[in-house]
């Protein structure tokens, strides 16, 4: 399965960036070596050694670990990953009428000396924040230290959403400014009231919040809100296969490395879903 995932992912990169970068290795070659490590849950240095590859896949000298480290930080590699992600997003042709927003903690362990990770409720690490519909990859996502408020990240993600429809979140997203941010992108945020036993009081409230809370008190609103489960399913799909997003390994530390690892795992998960769909359709 790891080889199939790697082959499918490299095929996307080759179609999008079939050109040589200045130097000995193309951007696609650098990503291919890195993705070989990602799908096998191994360090980049492991993928730089010829003995860890099938003989038929290695036709030239592999880049060294210092070369990989330097090239993976370049803007060209970052753009290639973004382009592959966008390609997978458009490939699914999914509806954007109903989206869900949530976060997934990525702990690193208390003994870690990662200066970019942070504590929250006794756990140290990062958090993946995502807005997801029924597409292969999130419509929008961000990575942040674990102590950064989900509301703060949600404000940025909601403001950049394309299209329009409904955005479903849990009770912690029930804040006036998030309703306004979602409305600015054409979305009605639906989130249960944080303190349902208490009245709203006399202070001003966003009309979008009042509309959302009123809708949730109806049978149609509750039926619509049940679609929020899809993001829980997406997070489960992201972690429930060999090569998926398991707890961060000890060699994935500091913000940029964690972001690169998580983004690659999102891409691996997307091609995994494509392979499953192809297998199911062919059976």
What is the element layout, followed by pairings?
Layout lengths: L1 H15 L10 H13 L4 H4 L17 H7 L3 H18 L5 E10 L10 E3 L2 E10 L7 E6 L4 H10 L5 E4 L7 H9 L2 E4 L16 H10 L2 H7 L3 H11 L15 H28 L1
Parallel strand pairs: 1-5, 5-6
Antiparallel strand pairs: 1-3, 2-3, 3-4
Question: Brief overview, please?
Answer:
By secondary structure, the chain is of the alpha/beta class.
Domains, number? 2
**Alpha-carbon Rg, integer:** 21 Å
Q: Kindly report how far apart the N and C termini lie.
A: 17 Å
- Class by SSE composition: alpha/beta
Helix content: 40-55%
Per DSSP, what share of the residues sits in E-state strands of 2 or more residues?
5-15%
Shape: elongated
Instruction: List SSEs in N-to-C order.
Output: HHHHHEEEEHEHEHHHH
Low-confidence stretches: none
Largest sheet: 6 strands, mixed
Count of distinct strands: 6
SS element count, helices: 11
Q: How would you describe the overall organization of this protein?
A:
With 283 residues, the protein is an alpha/beta fold. It folds into 2 domains: 125 residues, no CATH class; 137 residues, no CATH class. α1 packs antiparallel against α2, α1 crosses α5 and α1 crosses α11. It is elongated and about 70 Å long.
List keywords for this structure.
6-stranded mixed sheet, 2 domains, 283 residues, 13% strand, alpha/beta
């Amino acid at each position: 399965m790891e080889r199939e995932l790697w082959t499918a992912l490299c095929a996307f990169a080759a179609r999008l960036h079939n050109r040589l970068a200045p130097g000995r290795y193309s951007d696609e070659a650098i990503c291919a070596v890195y993705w070989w490590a990602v799908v096998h849950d191994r360090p980049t240095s492991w993928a730089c050694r010829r003995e860890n590859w099938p003989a038929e896949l290695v036709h030239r000298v592999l880049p060294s670990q210092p070369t990989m480290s330097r090239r993976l930080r370049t803007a060209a590699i970052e753009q290639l990953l973004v382009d592959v992600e966008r390609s997978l997003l458009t490939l699914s042709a999914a509806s954007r009428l109903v989206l869900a927003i949530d976060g997934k903690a990525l702990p690193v362990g208390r003994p870690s000396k990662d200066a970019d990770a942070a504590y929250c409720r006794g756990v140290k690490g990062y958090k993946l924040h995502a807005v997801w519909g029924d597409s292969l990859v999130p419509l929008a996502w961000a990575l942040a230290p674990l102590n950064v408020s989900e509301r703060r990240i949600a404000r940025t993600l909601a403001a950049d959403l394309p299209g329009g429809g409904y955005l479903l979140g849990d009770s912690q997203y029930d804040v006036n400014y998030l309703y306004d941010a979602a409305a600015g992108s054409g979305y009605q945020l639906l989130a249960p009231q944080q303190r349902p036993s208490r009245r709203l009081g006399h202070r001003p409230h966003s009309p979008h919040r009042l509309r959302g809370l009123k809708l949730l008190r109806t049978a149609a609103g509750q039926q619509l809100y049940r679609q929020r489960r899809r993001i829980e399913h997406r997070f489960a799909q992201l972690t429930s296969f060999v090569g998926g997003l398991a707890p961060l390994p000890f060699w994935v530390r500091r913000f940029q490395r964690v972001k690169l690892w998580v983004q690659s795992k999102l891409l691996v998960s997307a091609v995994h879903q494509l392979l499953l769909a192809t297998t199911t359709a062919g059976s």
